[in-house]
Amino acid sequence: MDRDGYISNGELFIVLKMMVGIHLKDGELQQVVDKTIREADQNGEGKLSFEEFSEMVSNMDVAKQMTLDLF
């Protein structure tokens, strides 16, 4: 959204909030965002490059990624 070429934690939160916000509380959504960044951020920058995002999307089950492990 800020056109820096990366997807930040905050940017991913905003996009997912628009997609599933009515189904998740903000705290739950933040857990999903944190998990997504943690698992896809290969170089540890705390944000996703286009390449990292593309690889994540092509190598995963999106529904599984967007779930919380409650137990």
TrEMBL record:
Query: Per the database record, which ranges form the EF-hand domain?
Result: 28-63
Key word Calcium present in the record? yes
Q: Which CDD domains match?
A: EFh (cd00051)
One molecular function GO term is: calcium ion binding
Q: Which SMART domains match?
A: EFh (SM00054)
Sorted UniProt keywords: Calcium, Metal-binding, Repeat
* Keyword field contains Nucleotide-binding: no
List the Pfam families hit by this protein, alphabetically: EF-hand_7
User: Which superkingdom, per the lineage?
Assistant: Eukaryota
According to the record's subunit comment, the protein's assembly and interactions are: Composed of a catalytic subunit (A) and a regulatory subunit (B).
Recorded family membership: Belongs to the calcineurin regulatory subunit family.
The protein depicted here goes by the name Calcineurin subunit B
The species this protein belongs to is Grifola frondosa (Maitake)
